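Progress narrative, work stream C.
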Amino acid sequence: MCGPGDPEGFLFLGKRQEDGTMEGSIQEEIIDQLRENGGNSMYLQAVRTHGGDAVDSADPGFENPFINGDPHLGLDESTLDQWEGWFSKMDEAGITIYFFFYDDGAKPFGYGNGTVSQEEKAFFEAIVHRFKHHKHLIWCIAEEYQEGMTFGHASELASIVDAADDHHHITAVHHGSGDNLMDFRLDPNIIQFAQQSSASSPQSLHTDVLEAVKDGAGSWNVLLTENSNDKNRDHYWSVGLQDRKQVRLRNWSVAMAGASVMVYGTWTAAAPDADMLKDMRILQEFMEGIPDLNQMISKDIIGFDATDYVLAVPGKSYIAYSSEPNGKMALRSLGSGEYHLKWLDCATGKIVEQRNVQINQGSNSLQIPKEIVNEVALYIIREDHEIMFVK
């Protein structure tokens, strides 16, 4: 997954009407941009009031799905009907609905001290039953969950979600900035770590995410949902702050650690340009075309010279990446044999394939095809182990 990590208030963009729905077509326009250009996720929140980011709104009931904005009055069916329309369009387009129940600090039923009230349980169950039929859907209990609830409360809510969802979607919990280790290590209902890093460079971001992935050891998967800090916002898309390449470098640094990635701030200031979204699709489709991707582990140690990161099924297949290629991709310890090479220009999407390439035991510097002129990714698989590339 590689896509936008916002707008967090996606469900509430536009002018609120008396029936609880939003007026305008902003949501449709965003979905259309993703469908056309790239980016296969949307980070959105159901409750942004009652302590969340919309707490100071002129209309305190503006950014939640409750009747008249009051959690004690239950869910507004007109609001949910409109959400269903947007979610159906996203699902059909293969865009993951990354559904946060609560914004950071949101406490619509009071601080979550470990005992889930019947009202809160009913809210979670109603949301799950209403939207669980969508295929491209991940539940996330809360953003920066520590701000609004205890560990035990978040765990109990995850149990409620799991019991209500007979489709068994992934359930995640989002942690605070700079926390690279999952709190819910032994919770069988939480199988995704929604990570937030404050790394100030692509290399340090790679290190942060790799720490989280290795800690999971296959027991949960990692999604880098946010990367920003006050001094350096290289992965924060905003007009005048950063360019497309800086975002792309960080996307690949995360993917090459074995995680999925969202770009925080994609829609914060203005809609991103089409090329930045296309970069997301290039990464997504390349990784989805690796049949043994989910078996790979980090092997950065076998890359040298301009090779930054390596993922591998040792002895069988490899992905290597260079942010500043010098004409060759340098790797060691591949083993002697004939290999199939699939080269990617990460900026243009250009792919060059080479068959029956002889590689000798030890260190090898593989010549990058002249058609590849930007950052480069390379998939290598032994001809005698080859699995058909996914088209």
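Work stream C, second folded protein:
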Amino acid sequence: MTLVHRVLYPQPIISLEDFVKRRGGQGLQAALGMEPAAIIEVLAASGLRGRGGAGFPTGRKWQTVAANRLPDAPSTVIVNAAEGEPGTFKDRTILRRNPYVVVEGALIAARAVDADLIVFAMKQSFAGEVDRVRAAIEEVEDEGWSDGIELEVFEGPDEYLYGEESALLETIDGRWPFPRIVPTFRRGIETAATADAPSPPALVNNTETLANVARIIARGATWFRSLGTTESPGTMVCTVTGHTQRHGVGEVQMGTPLREVIEDIGGGSKPGRTIKAVLSGVANSVIPGSMLDTPVSYEGLSAIGSGLGSGAFIVFDDTVDMATVAAGVARFLAVESCGQCSPCKLDGMALSDALTNLIASEGGDHGYNVVRRRLSTIADRSRCFLATQQQLVVGSIVEQFGDELAAHASRAAGPVEPVLIAELLDIRGGEAYLDLRHRQKQWDWSYNKRDSGTVPVELYTALVPPWRR
């Protein structure tokens, strides 16, 4: 077995007392005896990279926020627990098992970047995880761990873009999750600013990223680098779903072959079947079955033209028509586009319709040409990564499995429906439960019988969001 337990505890930690018995709190204690710059130096030396998808060096991000802090206004730490990438369930699993390790990491981050407020940004639908975090915060405050730092939980919407870090700040500020252009280290949450002063910077880190911090500070950068690879030290909590014998979440050393990850977490392919392809969430190029020996690391998956993302591996076996996967991905991303960038939303809708019609044997060669044409323009002038995701995922399926799309264009293949690509609601008993309601979600983000014909940014900007504080 390749599974390890640095971040993902094998059994739930039920109380702060239980956590302390397992050496919890040692990272925070060590940080209290260090200067903020020294904390950041240790983190940078560890090589920890963000586990939310982009893989940006965590130490460098902390250095940037610290360098941009305002002299008279403390910064803010945001724990991005708004998990919504299709195929991933790692952050909610970590919070279910041990929310204390995330709280401790956030408290260390607050000391490092001079923050007096930590916001745990979660989805209102994550009721169980919200309760766990709130209870952990109460215990930590009662024990005096926070000491001058305010801790609060923000419950946001289910929209996919809520997890994009600038859209996350917009949502906390009482607006809709529409991505900003200004980076979060220059403009944080406005609720932390006075009326006549600029908002201080915000440090936004993913749940799993912060779950690594306390042990790095307590045990040192060398300890963290004792697992993983030189470019991708440490471990990764991965989710395996799709056409496998079981679905689940597990922690592996960086550099473990993808085949082993799928086997150890998901039990491998179903009897008599072979793996045709694997999606690394919906932000990276598809991984063909011939590449399953690729190491699960930033550099390993990048070398084959894909990416690690949030460690969300959706497996498709040889029974799957990959044209239906392309249609499913295109629809999910087109629906979740906010419409601030017209090519992203409008070309995304056209791409989704073209693929859906193509696999329904209604598009012919014209539909195939529309797919290729829209892929070339969809990311024009985009302010976030969503449109590029369409190019990467759908484009790679078109490139690697073009014969399956061509079969629909020539009507050699019969009509089929898009594969459901949607957020995971839960994994229970080795079975993943997807958000089936997403099939009814309209382009305007409503669940009405008919779409309004208006993009979300035009429809909702003037409306007060239900989560506004």
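The chain has a mean pLDDT of 94. No further action is required on this item.
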